[in-house]
Amino acid sequence: MRDGFSKYARRLAPGVLILLAGCAGDYPQIMTQPVSEWGQIQIDIWALVTWWTVPILVIVIGVLAFILVRFRERPGGPEPKHVYGSTKIEVIWTVIPAIIVLIIAIPTIQAIFALQEEVPEDALVVEAIGHQWWWEFRYPEEGIITANQFYVPVGRPVALMLRSNDVIHSFWIPRLGGKRDVNPVVRTPEGVEPMHLNHIVLTVDSAGEYLGQCAEFCGTSHAIMRMMAVAVEPEEYDAWVEAMTVPEEPEADLAQVGHDIFMRSTCIACHAIEGTRAQGRLGPDLTMMGDRFSIGAGLMANTEENMTEWLLHAPELKKGILMPGARVEAGGMPPTALSREDARAVAAYLASLRLPDPLVPAPTAPAADPPAGAEREPAAGEREPLPMGPEPESD
Amino acid sequence: MNAEAHAAHPAHSHPPTATGLDNLKLGFWVFLGSETLFFGTFIATYMIYVGRSLEGPYPHEILDIPLTTVSTFILLMSSLAMVLALNAVQKDNRRGALLWLMMTAGLGSIFLGFQAYEFTHFYNEGLTLQSSIFGTTFFILTGFHGIHVTVGVIWLMILWLQTYAGRIRSADALKVEIAGLYWHFVDIVWIVIFMLVYLMQEG
Amino acid sequence: MPTTETTRSTSRSVGAVLWDWLTTVDHKKIGILYGATALVFFVLGGVEAMLIRWQLSRPEAAFIDPDLYNQLFTMHGVTMVFLVGMPIAVAFFNYLIPLQIGARDVAFPRLNAFSYWVFLFGGIFMYTSVFAGIAPDGGWFGYANLSLREYSPGPNMDFYALGLQILGIGSIAGGVNFITTIINLRAPGMKFMRMPLFTWMAFVTSFIIITALPVLAVALFMLTFDRFWDTHFFNVMAGGDPVLWQHLFWLFGHPEVYILILPAFGIASEVIPTFSRKPLFGYAIMVFSGVLIGFISWGVWGHHMFTTGMGPIADAFFTISTMIIAIPTGVKVFNWLATMWGGAIRFTTAMLFAVAMVALFTIGGISGMMHAASPADLQQHDTYFVVAHFHYVLIGGLLMGVFAGFYYWYPKVSGRFMSEKLGKWHFWTFFIGFNAVFFPMHWVGLFGMPRRIYTYAEELNLGALNLFMSAMSLFMVVGTMFFIWNLVRSWRKGEPAVANPWGGSTLEWSTTSPPPDFNFAELPVVRSRNPLWDNPEDYDERVHTEPAGGVHMPNPSFWPLITAFGSAITLILFMTHIWWMPLVGLAITAVATINWAFEPAG
Amino acid sequence: MADHERNKEPLVEPSSSVNPEGHEHPGVWTYVVVGFALAILTGLEVAAIYIPPLAPVIVPILLVLTAAKFALVVMFYMHLKMDDRVFSWVFVAPGILAVFVVVALIMLFRVLPQWGG
Ligand code: HEA
Ligand code: HEA
Ligand code: CUA
Ligand SMILES: [Cu+2]
Question: Deepest in the core among A311, A328, B106, C476, taking most CB within 10 A?
Answer without folding.
Answer: A311
